[in-house]
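User: Hey, my collaborator sent me this sequence without any context and asked if I could get a structure. I don't really work with proteins. Can you help?
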Amino acid sequence: MKAEYYSAAICRAMDRLGFIELRSTGTSMFPFIHERDTCFFRSFEPTHVKPGDVLLFINDEGALVCHRVIKVNKEHNEAPAFIICKGDTNLLPDPPVPSGQVIGKLTHIRKRWLTLSPDNGLGRLWGKLIIGMPPFAYILHRVARLYRWRSNYLSTRP
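Assistant: No problem. I've predicted the 3D structure and written it out in structure-token form, which is a compact way to encode the shape of the chain:
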């Protein structure tokens, strides 16, 4: 129930403003998206989703998730029946996401000193690297664990 409420509120805000701006948490998309980066999402047509896109959706536990599309299963060239997504540092893909649970598509990320888009330049190259070299996720997973440990260590120091 809570997830449906948030999903509806986010969709209403996107309809009114044309986009939604959210602050990131977690390290599943590290280093493409760092904790506290500002992510901008817009609504989109599920028929246009393709591998490499970064989507905002609600998972089975009701949490908002922003992960990269690695596979799209379509039925008869229509809207996808479900989408397979995975965080860049996650070792395994997420459970299949029905296209109805997708809220929006990432348009760009504002970092402290840089703005990145997954659709061009470094963002597109990074997406191709992640999708084209699945074992690379293991290295990123290890680096993200070190990053989380370092962040926790520095935040607990007097």
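In plain terms: The longest strand covers residues 64-74. You can pass these tokens on to your collaborator as they are.
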